[in-house]
Design brief:
The complex is a heterodimer of chains A (115) and B (110).
Chain A: E1 5-7, E2 10-13, E3 19-24, E4 31-38, E5 42-50, E6 53-57, E7 64-68, E8 74-78, E9 87-94, E10 105-106, E11 110-114
Parallel strand pairs in A: 2-11
Antiparallel strand pairs in A: 1-3, 3-8, 4-5, 4-9, 5-6, 7-8, 9-10, 9-11
Chain B: E1 3-6, E2 11-14, E3 19-26, E4 32-38, E5 45-51, E6 56-59, E7 62-67, E8 72-77, E9 86-94, E10 97-98, E11 104-109
Parallel strand pairs in B: 2-11
Antiparallel strand pairs in B: 1-3, 3-8, 4-5, 4-9, 6-7, 7-8, 9-10, 9-11
Classes of the chains: A mainly beta (115), B mainly beta (110).
Chain lengths: 115, 110
């Protein structure tokens, strides 16, 4: 158990809908990262928040947005869902940002299925 | 563009032997590189970190090397066990983020 929690574990929804994925980092970790993993693409970095502020953006679509709240939990919002958005979404947390010991601890993931 | 290459073919290896995985990267100058293990349907788990000024790092039966000239990292599992069967991800750190390779699956045959 990494100490990172993600809810829900599974989500099944229809095209065009909007969903929210939630992540609680390990106690004391200020950084939260979101990743998308599909079979053909591997683990793709989406976005990084540090202590409530956006620090880096990766291949995140405009239909997707995220935020980190004062209690450090984070939410990833996915809207106008398409079939191709079906994937595993992982959240990870770490203690510091951009330092040499930026080990990331991953949550169990949310499996999103868009029908 | 930046690329991370790991062998897409699964490595089948007999129990007790050494498994060696390769990670090649291009257009990167990572300050360090990490290796993660991922089991099906689960989140990656951190294994080892090696810095650019380190040639080799060991942890129990795991060994990682880092050659910044060749732009390559090798990951070794010695005395492999069936429990080592998983996908192993290489992740160089550059541009303020970790970037993950697609991973290399290892299957240890009893």
């Amino acid at each position: 158990d990494s100490g990172v929690t993600q809810t829900p574990k599974h989500l099944i929804t229809a095209t065009g809908q909007r969903v929210t994925l939630r992540c609680s980092p390990r106690s004391g970790d200020l950084s939260v990262y979101w990743y998308q993993q599909s079979l053909d693409q591997g683990l793709q970095f989406l976005i990084h928040y540090y202590n409530g502020e956006e620090r880096a953006k990766g291949n995140i679509l405009e239909r997707f947005s995220a935020q980190q709240f004062p209690d450090l939990h984070s939410e990833l919002n996915l809207s106008s869902l398409e079939l191709g958005d079906s994937a595993l979404y992982f959240c990870a947390s770490s203690v510091v940002v951009g330092q040499l010991t930026d080990t990331q601890y991953f949550g169990p993931g949310t499996r999103l299925t868009v029908l | 563009s930046q690329k991370i290459e790991q062998n897409s073919e699964a490595l089948n290896i007999q129990e007790g032997k050494t498994a060696t995985l390769t990670c090649n990267y291009t257009n990167y100058s990572p300050a360090y590189l990490q290796w993660y293990r991922q089991d099906p349907g689960r989140g990656p788990v951190f294994l080892l970190l090696i810095r650019e000024n380190e040639k080799e790092k060991r942890k129990e039966r795991l060994k990682v090397t880092f050659d910044t000239t060749l732009k390559q990292s090798l990951f070794h599992i010695t005395a492999s066990q069936p429990a080592d069967s998983a996908t192993y991800l290489c992740a160089p750190f550059g541009n303020n983020r970790l970037a993950f390779g697609k991973g290399n699956q290892v299957v240890v045959i009893p």
